[in-house]
Design brief:
The protein is α/β, with parallel strands linked by helices. The protein contains five helices and seven strands. Strand 1 and strand 2 form a beta hairpin. The chain is elongated and about 55 Å long.
């Protein structure tokens, strides 16, 4: 009985190498390049929408803190908007599904709660998308500013017509992180994403 030929001598130059073991095909440029894998993972998470604010991606919202190489796959570090956020499990599942669909595996999710998420982490693109979606984006939060509750926040421009002549109708909108407002100029109601 003859010993099998080495794979290199059996395969013609340029021939299909056949199926690969593992999550990625050999033609995938990220398979051998961790930096390309990380870049690809960031791009994938640019397409995963927040379950409560579908106009924003998880990256727009600023809750994807980091992506690092981990045992041939990636570790995604998430910071929830607040520790009791009911969407946390849905977000984790969405991240896993999106990365698996992009042939990035294995995926490990880590929750990092410190430093706490702040609305300052919302990207400029995210703020524009909020406005286009009909939600007034939050203003900046000063680190030294104490938490305070006021009857009416000042300077909330209507995302529809741009008028600063607005009034708060309710301290809470559809979620605890938003307040309900109405524009006195165009008479349209809108939500304001509270600065945290």
């Amino acid at each position: 009985m003859r010993a099998p030929e080495p794979a290199a001598s059996r395969q013609a130059v340029g021939a299909d190498p056949g199926p690969l073991r593992g999550p990625r095909a050999m033609s995938d440029p990220t398979a051998a390049d961790p930096a390309a894998t990380l870049e690809h993972a960031w791009a994938v998470l640019d397409t995963v929408g927040d379950p409560e604010l579908p106009a924003l991606s998880l990256r727009d919202l600023g809750i994807v803190r980091d992506i690092v190489e981990n045992a041939g796959g990636v570790e995604v570090v998430l910071t929830p908007t607040y520790s009791g956020c009911p969407a946390t499990e849905v977000i984790e599942a969405s991240v896993r599904e999106a990365l698996a669909a992009a042939a990035i595996a294995p995926v490990r999710i880590t929750q990092r709660r410190a430093p706490a998420w702040t609305t300052d982490w919302i990207s400029e693109s995210g703020r524009r998308k909020l406005r286009d979606y009909g939600i007034a984006p939050p203003g900046p939060v000063a680190a030294e500013q104490p938490m305070r509750i006021s009857i009416r926040a000042r300077g909330i421009d209507c995302p529809r017509c741009g008028s600063p002549d607005t009034e708060r109708l309710s301290a809470f909108g559809a979620t605890a992180c938003k307040a309900l407002y109405r524009c006195r100029a165009c008479r349209e109601p809108f939500e304001h994403f509270k600065p945290i």
